[in-house]
Amino acid sequence: MILNKTLGSSLGYRARLLRADVLxxxxxxxxxxxxxxxxxxxxxxFDDVPAIMGNPSIRDLSRLLDVLSPPNDSGLTVNxxxxxxxxxxxxxxxxxxxxxGYHLQNLLIHWAATLALYGTARRLLAAARGEQxxxxxxxxxxxxxxxxxxLHPLQTQxxxxxxxxxxxxxxxxxxxxxxxxxxxxxxxxxxxxxxxxVVACLLGVVSKEVIAAAPLLVLLGDRAFFSGTFRDAWRRNxxxxxxxxxxxxxxxxxxxxxxxxxxxxxxxxxxxxWWSYLLTQADAITRYLGLALWPSKLVFDYGVGLAGSxxxxxxxxxxxxxxxxxxxxxxxxxxxxxxxxxWFFLILAPSSSFVPIATETMAxxxxxxxxxxxxGVVVACGLRMPGRWSVALLGLTVAALGSLTxxxxxxxxxxxxxxxxxxxxxxxxxxxxxxxxxxxxxxxRLNEALKRIQEALRIHPTYLDALCNLSSVxxxxxxxxxxxxxxxxxxxxxxxxxxxxxxxGGVLYRLGRKxxxxxxxxxxxxxxxxxxxxHNNLGVCLHEKNQFEExxxxxxxxxxVDPRDGSGLYNLANALVKLGRPSEAEERLRQCLNAEPWxxxxHNNLGxxxxxxxxxxDAIVHFGRAxxxxxxxxxxxxxxxxMLAEKGQTAEAIALFERALRAxxxxxxxxxxxxxxxEALLQTGRIP
Length: 688
Description:
The chain is mainly α.
């Protein structure tokens, strides 16, 4: 009888263990999948543009050496990270610049990292409990850490922001490095798992620099959970550790050979000292911790602002010092708890210590891996609660985090919305202010654009991009003299900066000095052959000189970078019309309106092409849409009037010609059409 009870208990435990082994991984795939369902249509934003749309090295997967030698432009996210560039090249080979595939690959990487975290956490918990095989309790604890980590809104920047797959990719290989080591401790074939661990670390090396912390954390984890002392850890796995630490050599080579990493990281960055950067990180790390525990008001871009003095961050600095001291003490007295502290600080160290990074001083994607340590402490505390309470609290937290992540992904649906949320939640970011102003300018909201750009310059008076945008907007609102003053200073100070030269060309063009503008656009392209604005503007200049073939080549260059660029499509269509290729022009205008349905001139021009083919009803639809979008658009009013007159709706046509003349009194076509329509109406005996 006792034997039967023991057997029944054993079988029941095995059944629960089997259910956990199946159910937990399934939930770790399903729940993040649901939270990220609305992320797949988000457009390429910010660094996505140069790293994907303007990156020629990802266009041909068969040229593997080029793919594994990403552009060496300063600050580019793929620079010095061959595996990240390869992953983008695979996306391009499968779907070109269709965003859906890029987002899917990001989610796949996040799924894999989540499973790797689950596997690592459950084995560390099992080791802490003295178990060779993870028990149900270890599985539940590991599953709780992994599900909270996978659903946390802080992760959206590393998952939804396409190019920051660099963070999730290195996170995956970092976790696989630890997982391989943990599996080796309870395996009958430990060498296989140790080799797999070193290979994972090498893959992390070609993904991102944060992998530098992996060998140290494996050693600390070995001492805390398996060997007991550093001496025993080294004695048991000497060859493995030599191999693992040797991965620092290729990592150093990639860092030193990458202009972007060397040019934006280090102690020779103008205006950024190690002390000011260190002070800023005190604010950054306390902010990260706050967001980990209460993920509200997330910010896409914090800019490059620096703390001016210790007085600005005194309490944040105090918190960080206390946490560092506590982590060191814990490593000595309570190594397993200290391991979590080391996990947090060592992984953040490459980007959030005293080594300045010029591209950004704070970034939420840096918390992709460190967040696991914070949640590990939270789950450890939760496991001490009564079972029902801990399960209920976990369920509520999972639901809340999933909902917040889904809502955060909505901000990524448009670039303007993303920058607007950054300005709302962190208005001291000059870059967010400037980029939001740039969005407003592209949308024709020039007064709003000017306010944002001026605010960016109030925060950062020497901000080059904002000064370029200021000059461009001033020229568009006919404050040409002010625009020229700004531009002449910029050109004198930055004579070989592509953005400065392109903007200068735009101001010259608006001033009517088109030959000089063309020179500046050509100088820009000599420095930056894929500069979209320079290609587009040079094409416009050539179009006006009736050099349509060469203009088309520049508009096609725009579309090679961004096939959905509305200006490029619209201008290309106009040039194709001049070359006598109306069917191609019609297709380009349809593409333009798919990308930018608000572009009223494209509706008007498409209507004109339909009218030439005798498709009057289709023409009326597009002329009507143009007038609906721009009620004072004289060409649209006149063209719609002509179509209605063709259909015998003379009275309605007259009203449209009159509106066109109110908008543009000296419009000769509308004057002629109005006179003819009135004469036609008189002949019918009706008084207009």
